Amino acid sequence: MAWTDTEKCPPGRRMTFQDSLYTLSKGVFLKLAVPNWAMNLAETTRKIQTAFEELEPSKALIKFKVYMREMINRSGEREDLGDLFTSLLEANTHDTSIDALSDRELMGNIFIFLIAGHESTGHTIALMFGLLALYPDEQDRLLDQIKEVCGDGNICTLKSQGVALAFTTRPYDFIQLCGNDNQILLDYTLIYFQVTHIPKKSAEDTTLTTTNSRGEKTVIPVPKGTMIAIDTPGLHYNPRYWENPYEFNPDRFLKEYNKDAFVPFSSGVRSCLGRKFFETEAVITTLLFIRRYKISVKEEPQFAHETFEQRKERVMRCKPGLTLTPARIPLVFTRRDHIP
C-alpha cells in the first residue's frame, strides 16, 4: 500500500484497494446499520457500498485474490520471505489438505488483518503524538534516548550493541534498546486503549474469584461456553492496580506491575497476534518522527487562556468507532536543526 495517493484505479475496478479499505473502515458501522436497499440513497452510503462490493467475499472473491496476487507480484519475488498474505493465499490456492483455508476463511482473515492493523495502529500513533506534544519533557527525554542509542548514524541501517536495526532484520530488538519509547507506548496503551471491551469464551467449566465493594471474597461459577467481556477501562483505570491511572507517567513501567491488570492486546492463547508487529511499527514510526521533528500543539487564538487540563482534554478527545478514534489532534511538526 503506497504512502501517497498517487495510486491509480486498476482497469475493471471502481475504487483502488487503498481507498476501499479506508472507506470501509470509516463506514463499517453505517454498513452494519443501514439495510442494503437504502445504501444507494445518499452519496456517503453509496461510496461505502462500493467499497464493500470491491472487498465483499461472495461478489469480489476472485477479483480480490487476483488483486492481492498482483500486489505481491509487483513487490518482487516474495515467496522466500513467508509474509502473512502470501502464506494465506498459498493456504487457499495450493494447499489440498484438510487444513486448507476455504475462500470465505481466506477473505475473512485478510479483511480483519487489514482493518485491525490499519485502524488501530494509525489511531495509536496519532494519540501518542498528541501526548508527546502535551508533555514536551517526555519528548525531550525520548530524543535523548534516541541520541544515546543511535548516535549520528542512520536509524534504518545502524548496528547498535550488536543488534541489526534494519527493518528487514530484527526491528523488534530495537524496542529493547529504546526503553523510554517502549515505556511511552505502554503508558499510552494503559490510558488510551484501542479496544474498550475484549470478548472471551470459557473453554471449560471454571470459577472466578473476585472481591465485592465490601472487601468480601465472592466465587462466581463460569460454565463452559459462557461469553465474557473484559472491561478494559475498568481494569486500566482501577486505582487498586495503578497509582494515578489517569496521569501520563511512562516511568510506572520501570518497576514491577501487575501483568494481569494490563490487557491492551488482550491476553491468553487468543491474544492479539499482531502485537509485536504493532509495537515495532509504532515505536519505529515514533522514533523516526521525533528524531526529525519537534511535535507541539497548534496554538489557536480561541484557546489562548485554557488551562493544561483543558488543553489535554481538547487535544486527546476521542469518539467511539471501530476502535478508539481521535476526534481532532491539532499538531505542528517543526523540523529540527540538527538530526541526531
UniProtKB/TrEMBL annotation:
Names of the cofactor(s): heme
Alphabetized UniProt keyword annotations: Heme, Iron, Metal-binding, Monooxygenase, Oxidoreductase
InterPro entries (UniProt xref): Cyt_P450, Cyt_P450_CS, Cyt_P450_E_grp-I, Cyt_P450_sf, Cytochrome_P450_Monoox
Database matches in Pfam families: p450
Any one GO molecular-function label of the UniProt entry: monooxygenase activity
Superkingdom as given in the UniProt entry: Eukaryota
Protein name: 614/534 cytochrome P450
Organism the protein comes from: Coprinopsis cinerea (strain Okayama-7 / 130 / ATCC MYA-4618 / FGSC 9003)
